[in-house]
Give the backbone structure.
Amino acid sequence: MGRYVRRRLIQMVPLLFGISLLIFLIIQAAPGGPEAVFLENRLFIDPQVIEAFRQRLGLDQPVPVQYVRWLAAVLSGDFGISFTTGRPVGEMIAERLPATVELMSVSFVFAAVIAIPLGVYSAVRQYSLFDFSATTASFLGIAMPVFWFALILQLLFSVQLGWLPTSGRDTIGDGSLFDQLKHLVLPAFVLSIRHIAGWSRYMRSSLLDVIRADFIRTARAKGLRERIVLTRHAVKNALIPVVSIMALDLAGLFSGAVIAETIFAWPGVGRLFVQAMFARDYPLLMGILMMGSFLVVFFNLVADVAYGWLDPRIAYE
């Protein structure tokens, strides 16, 4: 296992290198340039001033030189300076990252706690009214637009009932844990709803396959109680492919956080990305994209390792 992890870590290097090149070229191809963003509200600027600005940013250099300089700075931990705030990009991301990690963690736990028992019970009660209802609800959860579902929940629980706040991470002047939990409920549930729907279907399908396996029939033939057969043998083995899918979907939680944080004004990296996109803050956009790309690659590695750890039959050589 250790050799496999080391090999995968080495393979991540050229992959991240290629991703960084792609991100840089996409930003370079965007309409206008950094100087246009900086000078768009300024009239009658001397061309010499514009040229001096381009030289200060290194924009007068060929694109390969610009990329090498940017990559060297990123490797040293310098993601550049934000056009909109004048602050270091790394510092801005570090400020917002804890809020995003908090939202993603709670959403992941929330989805797992609901989806796994739901999938197990649907498999045990196959073709029952509960199974049909859960299947219908799952399809709706997968097909329903996240932003629409978020707005409906805001209208119901915030505007109509007044139980939960509509936006923010806490109430000004009230930093209690209970107040923070109230602010967390709606965005976490919205972020997890699609994963609840998908994971419960995966769990149901996986468990139905395991229940029909020979070793389950052997366990029942030995006289074991059905609950023991289900919990100790069937569910444990059915979780193996599901856990792998859950690890892969961690990256999906990060991309989904962009929508949830924007709708609920959650002060995380996802909302910062949207703000940077509308402001055409290229250094900030590139920094967030690189961080997101690294998380996707890392979570893929976590999924592979988790699969091998759960299933001893898999040998990584």
